[in-house]
Amino acid sequence: MSETVINLLIKGSWETIVMTLVSGFFGFVIGLPVGILLYLTRKDQLLENKIVHQVVAFFVNIFRSIPFIILIVWMIPFTRNLVGTSIGVVAALVPLSVGAAPFIARLVENSLLEVPNGLIEAARSMGAKPMQIIRKVLLPEALPSLINAATITLITLVGYSAMGGAVGAGGLGQVGYQYGYVGYDIVIMNTVLILLIIIVFILQFIGDKLSKKFNHK
Amino acid sequence: MIELKNISKTFRSSKKKTIALNQVSLKINQGKIFGIIGKSGAGKSTLIRCVNLLERPDEGEVWVDNVNLLDLSEAKLTLERRKIGMIFQHFNLLSSRTVEDNIALPLELIGTSKNEIKSRVDELLQLVGIGDKAKDYPANLSGGQKQRVAIARALASNPTLLLCDEATSALDPATTKSILNLLKEINQKLNLTILLITHEMEVINRICDEVGVIDDGILVEHGSVEDVFTNPKEDITKEFITNSLDLSLPTFFEKNISDSKQENASTIYKLSFTNLPHYNSIIEEAKSMYSSEIELINSRIEYAGSVNYGTLFIKVQANEQNNSAIENHFTAQAFNIKKVGYVRNSN
Questions:
Q1: Measured between beta carbons, which residues in chain B are less than 8 angstroms from residue A119?
Q2: Is the Cβ pair A121, B82 closer than 8 Å?
Q3: Among A62, A74, B272, B307, whose Cα sits 20 to 30 Å from the Cα of B319?
């Protein structure tokens, strides 16, 4: 393998990691509050509100229905408006974050549902305000499960970012697509695959370790 | 002082409505331990949750320290709840926090300073007797230790009232006893009013000053523990008292018992009584009067304060006439007598 190809693969790996982590971060910035809102407004929960819940759930479902490859293309005008370009790593962050957010919201909602109701009841009986219940009870108690949700999200984003590579997002996906598929170089194609697998394994390993560290059940 | 006035609560689902509480009124004086006993589904859990408005009654008034909680806004109610501690059957400790951090939670909510929290938590750990467990996570504690943590947590913000929702129902008998002793100790040391609900008469008998019996959402009977044991008015109360003895026919008799009388058979009776200081002489009297064999199979006598109550199984070998005379004798002496069945005599 020539030095240029190796550099290409290193650059691609780095871009994939950046895209995954940064869009994962922004995905959580949007998805975490939305997930908390979905949870709180559910029936029999702290801020039960059918209308709010259904409206939020409606938009979450819509965005979850759009295949990611179509979302990228569909969002191009918005992406260009926001970051000034529609190709490259920075441009890819926009649809990646937007694509991950509703997915994260549902995972967060599920994690919070696992927190035993008795704990919320105990907090209410202590005179905890809703924000205090979220900060001091719900989120800490759901933390191991939220870390698992983050791991699932990041691994999904590795896949999404590779998909984005086909339409100019950069990263290992683009390397694999351009040199492996279009250029039909089996070595590059397989190396890209192995690199993606390694990234996924590392993410899963770290996620499991962290989740275990914070789980005192 | 706590006063509930005409509390009613109905749960409605699409299919049916369930009346959980029906016009319940009760009053608890400062420093007393009031126990509410009822079967599962009787409404006792709803009742205790109505006191701090975890459950909002449909009608009635809930007075805690001269404030009607139902008049308060949600924000004011939140503040008022800090004066009411609560412990639960399943402890409800945060698994993500150590013992000391669990106890600190109510103090964090009111913005207590770190130093103050530290000294208050140490004090509470000593009070409930788990000083050595401060850094442990709840997962590593036994049930009794978890309930001690929960009690310390409930006491952290110096409440005037402690609610105990089946606090000992998940614990074994020895642990139950130690937790009940702790509650009594706290009640006396801090002059803390306690309202507890339970399905076990033993809990009432052991620590309560007053008892209320709830059945089908209605508070059917209430008064001092001794009064209720001395003179239980409702059948359900009598049932709780005798059932608390947990006495059953020995397996040997259970296996050989039949409903119909055969040749050469004895009758088995179950007797129960409350407040009969001379129960023993009544039995002796029956033995001598009817010159038949009255054999005691199994018995248990307990005391609630100075009042005794008990259940016994006897085997009577007599003719038809004497059998009914014996039944009458016991009934006349305020025993509750029930024919359980017949067993064949062994020879």
A1: 92, 94
A2: no
A3: B272
Backbone angles phi, psi at B305, to 5 degrees: 60, -125
Amino acid identity at B252: F
How far apart CA A191 and CA A196 sit, in angstroms, is 9
Residue A46 has pLDDT above 70, yes or no: yes
CB-count exposure of residue B218 (10 Å: 0-12, 13-18, 19+): middle
Q: How far is B12 from chain A (nearest CA, A)?
A: 14
B247-287 tens-digit pLDDT: 888 998 888 888 887 778 889 999 988 888 888 888 888 88
Is residue B198 pLDDT above 90, yes or no?
Answer: yes
Whether the CA torsion B319, B322, B327, B328 is positive or negative: it is positive
Interface pTM, i.e. ipTM: 0.87
- Token pair recorded at residue A206: 């770290």
CB contact under 8 A, A217 and B90: no
Distance, in Å, from the CA atom of B203 to the CA atom of B221, rounded to the nearest integer, reads 17
What is the CB-side half-sphere exposure of residue B344 using CA atoms within 13 A? 6
Nearest-angstrom CA–CA distance, B162 and B187: 9
